[in-house]
Amino acid sequence: MSSRERILGRVRRALADTAGDDVPYERAVPRDYLREHGDRSASQTVDLLAENLADYRAVVHRTDGEGLAGLIAALLDKRGSASVLVPPGLDPSWLARTAVTRVADRAESTPHELDEVDSVVTACAVAIAETGTIVLDGSHDQGRRRITLVPDHHICVVRVPSQVVSSVPQGLERLDPARPLTWISGPSATSDIELDRVEGVHGPRTLEVILVSGD
Amino acid sequence: MSGTYLGMPAFPEAAREAVANTTLRGNLRHATHTIRAKRAKAVNEVSDWAGLREAGKRIKDHTLRHLDRYLIQLEESVTAAGGVVHWAADAAEANEIVTRLVKTTGESEVVKVKSMATQEIGLNEALRDAGISAYETDLAELIVQLGGDRPSHILVPAIHRNRGEIRDIFRSEMGEWGRPAPDGLTDTPAELAEAARLHLREKFLRAKVGISGANFMVAETGTLVVVESEGNGRMCLTLPETLISVVGIEKIVPTWRDLEVFLQTLPRSSTAERMNPYTSTWTGTTDGDGPGTFHLVLLDNGRTDTLADEVGRQALRCIRCSACLNVCPVYERAGGHAYGSVYPGPIGAILSPQLRGTGSEIDASLPYASSLCGACYEVCPVAIDIPEVLVHLRERVVEGGEVTRQGNKVVLRPAKGHAAERAAMRAARWALTHPGALRTGQRAASRTRRFHPRSLPGPGRAWSGTRELPPVPAEPFRDWWQRTRGGKGGAK
C-alpha cells in the first residue's frame, strides 16, 4: 500500500463517527464578519492607507501624474542610487527624469548581480488600507518576485484611489491566486529579539510608497 | 517526532530546573508581557473579532471533517499547477523523501524557512546524517542553531535568550558557519539584525535548494501561503531553483476566500500586527519567476491518530500563532524547553501527547502542565478549548482506554503512578453511593477536627506541600440543613 492510500485510509477511519454529517461547505461556515471595518469615502480610505503604511515605517509620498517622474528622480537621487531595477512593463515616463543606470529584470540575472543594484521601482496590484499592505502579483509593471527582494531600496507606486481597497477580504477578491503574490506591509522587520519589533533584516530595509492621484 | 527530545524528563522535573533559572524567567516575563499588551490592542482594533474567530473555527472543522476529499483536491490542483506531491506517513518517511529530493539536485546545502513541521520531524539532523548542511534563516532559528540550542517558542524559538546572550552567541559561533559577526558587535537589536543579514546573505544568494513549511494550503487552487516578517522566507521561496515544502495535512483550507479570515486573525494573534511584513503565496511553479521545481510533502506523523479522537481532534485547528503560549502563566514561568517538544505551551500540552502518544514519561505528564485557568482558550483565534482537551487527556492517562496509534486501534493501560489517585476516586465513589457511611464519616471528621494535621503524611505530602488543606466545618452540611431547614427563620 502506498503512503497516500495509507494516509487517506487512516483519515477515513478516523472520521467514522462523522459519517452522517454532510453539511456542504457553503452552509458550514457562518460569514457574519465584516467585509470592511468602518464606513469611509474613497479619499478617507487612501488616507488610512497612508497612515497605516507610515505606522509600520514605510515612507509615504503623495503626488499626481505630473509630479511622479520628478519625485522618483528625487528619491533615487536622495538615496544616492547609481542603478535601478526596472520591470519590463513599467511605464517609461516614470523614469523619464532620472539618469540612473537602468538594469532590466531578466531571467538570466543571478542573485549576486541583483545584489549589486541599489534600488527598484515597481507598480503594484492592489493596496489594502486597513492593514497598510501593498500586494505585488508579478505583472509586467512589477516584475519577478526577486527584484523587489534583493535590492535594499524599493519604490512602489500605487494609483489612488483605483488600486486601493479597504480590507483584506476586498483585497483577496481582486487578486488571482494563480499568480505568485507578495504582500508587503512595511519594510522587512523582526520580532525575534525579546518580541520587540525591529525594522530591517533581509528584505529591502527602505520601502517608499508613492500614492499617485488623478486616475 | 524528533529524536532530539527522547528521554526528556517529565514536565515537573524539567520545570523545576527552569523556574530556578532567574535569567530565563526574566527573559520570558519581559517578552510575554510585551506581546500580551500589544496583542490585546491589535485584536481590539477589529470590531468583528468574535465573528472571525467563529468562522476560522468552522472552516477548520469543516475541512477536518472532509479531510480526505480536500487532500485529494489539493493534490490535483498542486499537480495541475506544476508541483509534485509526495505523501509521508511518518517522520522517517518525510525525512527520507526530502533527503532523496535534495540528493537528486546534486547539492549539499539547503536554506530553510522557519517551519514547525520540519522541526517536528527532525529534518536538519536527518539531512546532516546524509551529508547535507541545512541553514536556518529565521533570526530566532539562527540563534537556536548557532547556539546548539533547542527552540522554546512556536513563533520566537529563541525567546529564552536576551539580547546580551544573542550577541555572545553571534560573536563566538557565526565564524564557524560562515561570515563572522562584525567587529565590535553590540547588543542593540538593530545591530544584531544587521549581523544576521550579513551572515545569511551569502547563503541566500548561492542557494540552489530551499525548504519551507506553509501556514495554509488552498485545496481549490493549489496555493501555498507563507506568512513571515524578515524576508528570509521570500529569499528561500524565490531565489533557489528547487523548493521543497513539508506541510502537515491539517493545514488545508477549502477556498481562496477562506484566507480572508486567517490573514486577519493570524498576524494579530501572533506578532500583534495588523499585518506581518511579508506574506508569499505561490501556486505550483511560474515560468521564469522563482523555483522551476516544486515539491510538496504532505505529512501525517500522528495527525490522523489525533483526528480519530473526538475530543482531541480540535487541536488540529491550530494555526500556530502562539497566542496561548504568551498568555499562559505556566509557560511564562517554566519556559518552552520543559515541555520536551517543538510544540511548547498550552497547545503543545495537548498536541504532543496526541501526535506522539502518551507512552513516554514527558508525554504522560504534559496534560498536567496547566492550571486550567482557560486564558489559552480565550485568546485562541480558532477557539480550541485547550482546558477541555487537557482534562480529556488526563483521563486517558489515568484510566487508559482505546486510542488510535499509527492508524490502528490500541487499548492503553492506565499509567503507572496514578494508583493513589485511582484508589481515592474509587473510595469516593463508594462513599458517595453509601449515604449512611458518608454521614458517619462526616460526623467523625467534624468531631475530630481539632486533631487534623496541617499537611498530609506519606504520599500526600507532595500535594499538601504547596496547598492549604481545606478546613473541616464543625457540623456536616447535611446535619446543619436538617437542623435548620436551610436557615429558615434566621436559624444558624
From TrEMBL, chain A:
Please state every residue range assigned to the domain named LUD: 103-212
Q: Name one Pfam family in it.
A: LUD_dom
Which SUPFAM superfamilies does the record cross-reference, listed alphabetically? NagB/RpiA/CoA transferase-like (SSF100950)
* Protein name per its UniProtKB record: LUD domain-containing protein
The species is Streptomyces djakartensis
UniProtKB/TrEMBL annotation, chain B:
Domain Lactate utilization protein B C-terminal as annotated: residue spans = 393-483
List, for all copies, the residue spans of the domain called 4Fe-4S ferredoxin-type.
Answer: 315-384
Cited SUPFAM superfamilies:
4Fe-4S ferredoxins, NagB/RpiA/CoA transferase-like
Q: Which domain of life is it from?
A: Bacteria
NCBIfam families the record matches: LutB/LldF family L-lactate oxidation iron-sulfur protein
- Pfam families assigned: Fer4_8, LUD_dom, LutB_C
* Disordered: annotated span: 438-492
Q: What is this protein called?
A: Iron-sulfur cluster-binding protein
| Entry keywords, A to Z | 4Fe-4S, Electron transport, Iron, Iron-sulfur, Metal-binding, Repeat, Transport
Q: The LUD domain covers which part of the protein? A: 73-296
Query: Organism, per UniProt?
Result: Streptomyces djakartensis
